[in-house]
Amino acid sequence: MSLLSIKNFNFSYPASAPSLTDINLEVASGSFNVLFGKSGSGKTTLLRQLKPSLTPHGTTSGAIEFLDSPIQELEKKAEASQIGYVLQNPDNQLVTDKVWHELAFGLESLGCDQATIRLQVAEMASYFGIQNWFEKKVTELSGGQKQLLNLASIMAMHPELLILDEPTSQLDPIAAANFLATLAKLNREIGTTILLSEHRLQEALPLADQVFLLDAGKLVAAGMPKVVGAQLKAQKSELFSAMPAAMQIYGAISSGSEFPLTVREGRNWLAGLDITPQKKLAASAPAALPKKAPAMIEAKDVWFRYERNSPDVIKDLNLTVATGEIFGLVGGNGTGKSTTLALMSCLLQPYRGQIKLAGQKINRLTDQALYHQFLGLLPQDPQSLFVKQTVLAELYEVIDGKKEKPSAAYPLKMKKETAVAGIAELTHLTELLDRHPYDLSGGEQQRLGLAKVLLLRPKILLLDEPTKGLDEFFKAELATILMELKQQGVTILLVSHDVEFVAEVADTCGLFFNGSVVTQKPAKEFFAGNNFYTTAANRIARRYFPQAVTTKDVIKCLKTIF
After folding, report:
1. Whole-prediction pTM value?
2. What is the pLDDT at residue 412?
3. CB–CB of 51/79 below 8 Å?
């Protein structure tokens, strides 16, 4: 039975080209559906059409039916209870002060009686394992806990359809896997229909009954995951690079059509190949490590807490990043990674210990010396950088306006127009220059934030979750940008939950735990030795090629021996 039906649907924002064109799709009751595509392809726009209270202003045509009735005719109370929506940023959805208040908020809004509220809140808290932090303030929760609380609050109203817009984008790998496993459990045990927009296809696709692919506002593929993957491979589509590691490795080596989807299926396929010990040895020669340059960032015995009587967030942190090195920090939500970047950029001050940049104590550097052509920070929320009405104005703002006058980063001999045009092209913003920054998708906002920081031409670049909201295609370009900056001598300290990206670009990687870096090693060695903080490609192939960390590494090893 069809729960949701979209027929010949079109949508355009005011004074803009169509964002959605001739969309036709069916979502079966009780099914698990995954929506994916490039950043800006129209995923969020489409999902918001399915929740009338969130529908953006614009021109529409075609029909959307929910339970065989036009979705626009759905009563407000029925919409609130029957269609749940979980946002990308968990903080944007929390509306009360305590966990139990949040669980009860939706039920109270629907006018449920106290006995019903108490029963359903208790049931949801038990089902989702929230009882141990039931009395906590929401501000004390980690990112994973906040997102789980949002999900539990929605499920307390027993929706027929649960829509999720990239809900794991700010979660660490373990929290993201747990969150997606919870969605699968809801779908399997309760029968809730799931429609999930996600860039982390490695974990999401194996759960899906049906996959929808959007490209430039059009639905270009729909079907079971393996069918869609095989179709993209046959078409030699660049979108195939977004598929799970097992599919990519198989597609690069085999001409068959039995694509493995999961890590287990990928391991079983490799086990069936003729990979002898001699072939393993030939393909697994370790690369020589480059010599370390002098230190650019040094943290020694650093301690920090947000309030005098609060617990320490950073505990005896010792960290050294060499000049021209890309250093990746991974770790769970709430362990102190973002706080570390704030300390490195002098936005926060440690109460004990010392931080040096290029050999100088950070607290002795003036703002002029620190933030003009020396240090750039891309925060986790790029919206905190936006102060103008258009993308173009945002780019000029960071270099002291459009007028031809010298600035710290751009003396008169360097044309500002040339610099802005170049960075816009580099970050794929050229077609978006007249848009308001808040009208951009999450991935487009991330690219704008990166563009503003790069216009400062920093010698030290601090990046907090730079791939959040980005598709696989711009991630590859971001990796190229970071490599070029490294060649120019820029030092990069990168915090990310995207272990595949960190494994691709980082020279050195450290694991942040309980307020400090507990281990740091060359990136390949680091990921090859982990079980959870490692890549899917390494899990698939580590029995044969232990040092192969990325999908490219595994494909290269296999092509060496076959």
Report:
1. 0.83
2. 47
3. yes
